[in-house]
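Customer ticket, subject: "Can you confirm the structure for Membrane protein YdfJ?"

Message body: Hello, I'm evaluating your service for our small team and ran a test protein. I'd like someone to confirm that this is what the system normally returns, since I don't have a reference to compare against.
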Amino acid sequence: MFERAGRLVYRGRWTLLVLSLAVALLVAPLGMELFGRMADGGFEDPRADSTTAARWNDDWYGGHAPDVVVLYHHPTVKARDPRYRKAVHDALRALPAAHVEALATYWTTGSKLMVSEDGRSTYALVTLKGDKQAGYAAVEDRLRRATNLQVSIGGPVPLLKELNDQTAADLARAEAISMPVLLVLLVVVFGSLVAAGLPLLVGAFAVLGALVLLRLLTEVTEVSVFSLNVVTMLGLGLAVDYSLFVLKAFREEIAAGATSEQAVVRTMATAGRTVAFSGLTVATALLGLLVFPQMFLRSIGLGAAAVVLVAMGAALVVLPAALGVLGRRVNALRLTPDLGTGGRGGGVWHAVASSVMRRPVLYLVAVAAVLVALAAPFLHVTFGNVDHRVLPAGSESRRVAEIVDRDFGRNSMAAVDVHVLVERSFTEAPARPGPLGQGHAAISAVTPVTPDDADPLAARLRRLPHVTGVDVAGLSQDNGAVRLAVRYDVDPMSAEAQRLVTAIRTLSPPEPNVRRVVVGGPTAAQMDLMDSLAGRLPWMALVVGSVTAVLLFAAFRSVVLPVKALLMNALSIGASLGVIVWAFQDGHLASVLTFTSTGTVEATVTVLILAVVFGLSMDYELFLLSRVRAEWLRTGDNTAAVAAGLQQTGGVITSAALLLLVVIGAFSTAGITVVKLLGVGLFVAIVVDATLVRALLVPATMRLMGGANWWLPRPLRALHRRVDLHEPGGSAGSRGTPALPLPAPAPPAPVPAPRGHSCDEGGRARPKGEGGPRWERISRERDRVVRATPDGAGWTWVEVDR
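Agent reply: Thanks for trying us out. I re-ran your input and got the following:
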């Protein structure tokens, strides 16, 4: 299948390149429209009680949820001074009614909570109409024109604007940092400026694809503002990674004397096959995020999976087409000696492979101990939520939120919302009784709702631990509801606050006049989020694990290797999450990475890291096992296959990991803490995976398992043969090059079987056991082909599927 794809790409190389360039130019303006269309938040479960409470706040209580918080301050004059009131109200009256829905100040509400403890600061709440971002842009300048007062602006809409601006700046900075460094490293790896530029070309296609795909997603669903950096980082990193493997294989084919067409075809059949399986595996892990109801996870899952497939497609279509055009000119503009990315002979990877094969138990125990130690901090993880502290310390929106929280009533904007739905009774007989549907409604009026209806419940709430006050915050006659604001004296994310919410939700027996109580607010939202994530995480693990296992079975014709790969990935994920807790929750990297430690780790970002790390870890697993599998098919010797696979892929995996680390490291400089957290998690996971896990732990484990690595039950062999995804049997040296079939070859002479092997019907040696490579009888579906031996000294017959 991949050989046929390679021939099609080569034959249509010019057409594919022209079409790819034309499409890129046409869709580029669409991608640029993404900025400003993304949404803040998205961390809540839409079906949770806390989300319902937040929606009722907006819809039921006359006033609307504020979009802008305008903070006023005077160094000497206090808010009770009439001059203070006049300055604030004069500024607010100048706002255009076309953009402003509602206003609230200390003087219009009489709320003492809207005046700071020193009396010299107050804030106004502004609700906007229609397009919030456009409305804010229209009124921002006028909001700052209060006479003789210091004005700062925060709230949800300004916060989103700052997030959008910060995201765009972070993206530009990350690309400015990573692109030159990537170019230098690629020149060092390949020696040629032309070869070094090709992965960056594929990366540019992936970044553009990320922007366009996210822009299209905004037409059908909300897209998180945090998704841009995440999706772009993955697209650029994996595009460079995949291009490295394809480019290396093509250059080796050219060096071995193949024509441009042969090189493209053989590259697609080997490196292309591995890239395809890798892309599908990574995309599967990311699509696992769709099992969660949170918009943040769903939008990133969709966008990231799509951009991974774009990166894979560019590496399998655009890059081979360009290589077909360039041919041997891929090595043009040589600047340095070609250091390569691995080799067949000695060197450091030969030494590493030899050492691991001699002492597998020692390496297994030592590496496992290191990974467990790295994962240990995760045992004391505390999950929190995303708030204003994700922005840099100098952000105006963040500063306003911190001042309100510090200088005004404790948790004045983070109260527990308690919505009391009152059981109302009929008050009078209908004035004009008559049949329903004939102009008369035989339904009596009901008693109006008053704050008194919630007094018994409010009295019980005041007696709960840490409660400092219970106020009536809203009344809805249409819906028969009273909204209570429960204020407390502990941190909203603390265990005490969570126990308070639990106590409110479990108050019993309910008041006789109350039909339902719904609890919301930041603490309740965090608790509902954790319940939602915990309930969906096993389903994500089941779906992603099952699909990944099937893909690995199709790739490697084994039922043992998929299980081993899943276990290895669990170790990489554990190490990454442990370092995140140490760095962010415990704050050990706060000064280095310039962020504010909140003492917690955001739960949804942790799930995102789990999915992305799983996909990236499986990426390198596929590259290593593909080479080991090819050697196993050629020799039937598990130890030799593992050693040769590690020796031949160690350099290229290390180079690919280094390039990916450059991209992730550049994005880790982002000003948004969520992106920093994700970047650090991925950075650690890749370092651990490319060094400890793939270079040492996986080879040691496979060495100890021996031929059991390749065990496949008899019923599954026929199933695997029906799928046209087989790898080319045997390989020409380290390249894994599929040989061209020769016409009507004579059968090879029998070869004596080595110890531990048996012979097939033709007298040729084959390994013992169910898992070893077998030579079946020649049929209409199979051919005999000639391949070079690994040392290049001779030739051998090998049978392959047609």
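A couple of notes from the result: Confidence is low (pLDDT under 50) at residues 341-346, 724-782, 784-788, 790-795. Residues 156-190 form the longest helix (35 residues). Feel free to reply with more questions.
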